[in-house]
Amino acid sequence: MNPIQLFDTASSTYTYVLFDTSTRDAIIIDPVDTQLERDLQVLRDYGLKLALTLETHAHADHITSAGMLAELAGAKTAAPVDCGISTAAVQLKDGAILSFGTEKLRAMHTPGHTAGSMSFVWRDHVFTGDTLLINGCGRTDFQSGSSEAMYHSLTQVLFKLPDGTTVWPGHDYQGKTSSTIGAEKAGNARMAGKTEAEFVAIMDALHLPPPKRIAEAVPANLHGGLRHDAHPANSLQVQPAAGYAGDVSCALAWAWVQHGEAVLVDVRTDAERAWVGFVPDAETVAWKQWPGMVTNPSFDAELLAAVPPGKKVVLLCRSGLRSIAAAKRATELGLQAYNILDGFEGDPDGNAHRGHKGGWRLSGLPWRQS
Ligand SMILES: N[C@@H](CCC(=O)N[C@@H](CS)C(=O)NCC(=O)O)C(=O)O
Ligand SMILES: [Fe+2]
């Protein structure tokens, strides 16, 4: 059985979907953000449950959809441990085995294109990312690349696989789709029959222009494709604030909650939550229960009960004002407290300093209508 091979023409990237034909559990390798709808449709068409998203490396030329697939399809994200992809739930070491249904896939550390790059072996197939390309190989001139490491990964790791193994590359720029280990060992113009020194000289002489999107792609891919370089309301950096630990975007707050670093506390009133919508996995500690009330007299006790020692607290209200007051109070109580910019609904006036995106409800993050 072959994997499903999908192509992104803008970046010449191949994405692969593999699945267990009986349980329908699937893995997707190197998904591309702009192809999210296509990939979700493929999963629906084949009746698949996405168990895992998998990266061969932190890409420099396109942005992954791993973070979005985790949200929308319930997948766990996996990435090579040495790629610095901090949001990946599974950090893969050399030799790691990933299961989907009864199928198994093995991770092989194949540095060279980047120091953390991996290839994945499944049955008699190998997904080589940007290590081995068809009649080529990934460039080694940026992002911790190394021609010496590449030569070793090609000749001592990938070329030790059986000759009949099908090679599925991370890119092809000439329309080729697959090859075999035997064919590449015999005929790949970059390294077949070449010494390490000859290979290094070929790589040194390539002088390729940098990928056009490298400046935005790499930082985003280190966070599963969630953008850090946009408006503060979408940023994955903490914004400094006075009187509490900082302001954070909905996306950063949710990433912390998913990774168990922070507790999400919704400080809206019971009536607002019931009327407008609930946030799954949020603790509820109202700052006020009705407009006339100055503060909820049991706020301190309820908050301290909701946040275990050592965890951050991220506070959410409707528009991002009460959560600032609550974050200041939480700080006085000794907690590491952050305000979620834009709140649940966003700033109704769209003031630039308070974000522009419309808050949690419109952020694409999970919420439930009453
Ligand atoms: N023109 C492409 C650059 C593509 C590129 O540099 N691709 C990398 C993989 S991320 C590579 O290793 N290319 C090998 C080659 O072109 O020989 C872009 O701007 O995105
Ligand atoms: Fe790459």
Can you walk me through this structure?
This protein is α/β, with parallel strands linked by helices and 370 residues long. The chain folds into two domains: 215 residues, Metallo-beta-lactamase, Chain A (4-Layer Sandwich); 133 residues, Oxidized Rhodanese, domain 1, CATH 3.40.250. 24% of the residues lie in helices and 22% in strands. It contains ten helices and 19 strands. It has a six-stranded mixed sheet with strand order 1-2-3-4-5-6, covered by helices on one side. Strands 7-8-9-10-13-14 form a six-stranded mixed sheet. The longest helix is centred in the N-terminal third of the chain and has 11 residues. It is elongated, with a radius of gyration of 24 Å. The two termini are 45 Å apart. Bound molecules: glutathione and fe (ii) ion. The site of fe (ii) ion (FE2) has 6 residues, from loops. The site of glutathione (GSH) has 13 residues, from loops.
N-to-C CA distance: 45 Å
Task: Report low-confidence residues grouped into runs of 5 or more.
Answer: 350-356
Top CATH class of the largest domain: Alpha Beta
**CATH topology of the largest domain, anyone?**
Metallo-beta-lactamase, Chain A
Q: Determine the CATH superfamily of the largest domain.
A: Ribonuclease Z/Hydroxyacylglutathione hydrolase-like
Query: Largest sheet, if any?
Result: 6 strands, mixed
Chain-averaged pLDDT: 91
Biggest β-sheet: strands ordered side by side in the sheet: 1-2-3-4-5-6
Number of strands: 19
Question: Structural class per helix/strand content?
Answer: alpha/beta
Strand content: 15-25%
> How many domains in all?
2
The bound ligands are: glutathione, fe (ii) ion
Number of helices: 10
| Anisotropy-based shape | elongated
CATH architecture grouping of the largest domain? 4-Layer Sandwich
Q: Determine Rg (CA atoms, Å).
A: 24 Å
Helical content (DSSP H or I, runs of 4+): 10-25%
Quaternary structure classification: single chain
Order of SSEs, N→C? EEEHEHEEEEEEEEHEEHHHEHEHEHEHE
